[in-house]
Task: structure prediction
Amino acid sequence: MFLALIQKQMKILLRSRSELLMLFVMPIILITILSFALGSLMEGNSEMTKVELAIVLHDNEEEQLHEFRKVASEIFPIDDEMEKQMKQMLPISMLLEQLTKSEEMKEFIHVTELKPNEFENARKSEEFSAIIEVPENFTVNFLTSIFMEGDQPAFNVYVNESEPITSTVVKNILDFYQQQYTFFTALAKNGFLSDEMTVPTPEIKSEIQTVDTETKINSSIYYTFSMSVMFILFIAGTIAGQSFLEKNMHIFDRILLARIHPLTYLASMIVSTVVIAFIQVAILFAFAYFAFGISLNQWGLTILLTLLLAIVVGGITALLSSINYRSNSANASNIFSNALVSILALLGGSFFNISGLSPVLGKIGMWTPNGAALDGYLKLAQNGSLSDIQHNLMNLAVMAIVLIVCAVLLFPKRGGIA
Result:
């Protein structure tokens, strides 16, 4: 009799063409559209281009040195050795020398000096990866901080956020320069700086490595999994809605009169959902294999992950059916299909990687069935192991237990109006 109930549920679904289109055809269409439409956006161009660095000087450094020398000579004597140290310590000149005269640096960085009146236009144009703005009296204030214990000045660095790789290179170079220059300034203060000592140039090397054990996640892989775990949720609303029609048509009453336990009927809905979910995922993965060449190496773990996801969806089906039966209305399954699935899809990353937008939302998404499954599928696509998806499996198992227990407690034990 239990198998007969499962067969009944499968036949009801096969007779509903609109539901079949929603569950099996719509995800294929969306996977195809999103894979091609968002492919270039997701994959992008990872090749690093030459860093375009602009520097804006509001003052001439040599003139600033002369001005400081005039002021300082009235306070303490300046001999030839001290003047030589001052010239060695001019920060902007030294930075430009390192950037423009080093062959290693010239290979990666192109420096353009801009006039102060060109600064605003350059910043708005996004032509440069980064812009260094040296304010007025920077050199005078810097030398004052060294020789007269004044406040140390700072220059402004504007990075182009649309070029994260090149702007990060600029930041690392400036961090390196600041560390080394601070060290050499301390030497100069104590009289240990000699003509042979210069700020070293940071070593920049470019090396491309291919990691064979990890597969790149492109748009086709991502949206195959994300659409699969989203549309599998619609199965719950569909079967729960159909089960309520059986209640309205008194089929459930006749099942009880045949001395079939209500929980047997509930279990048949869970198992039917699991079977249909497996068929749906198999069709979508087969389509992805033939259309995009996406193959799964970790078949055992993939089946295990899909099984737990399907059981969770079965638990959602049972819970929605229980609520429908208790309320004598199909509102629960309708709200789930029309609203809650979209919310779960957003939190679970079916539309885009939500963790990149908010780490907190990403953690919440891991406690949605589609979010936990999607993260697990992506890990397996990158040749992950059981330990890599252990957290995902645990989340799905906990959700499945909670949902099924709640469904059993709520499901009515007799027919008629609950």
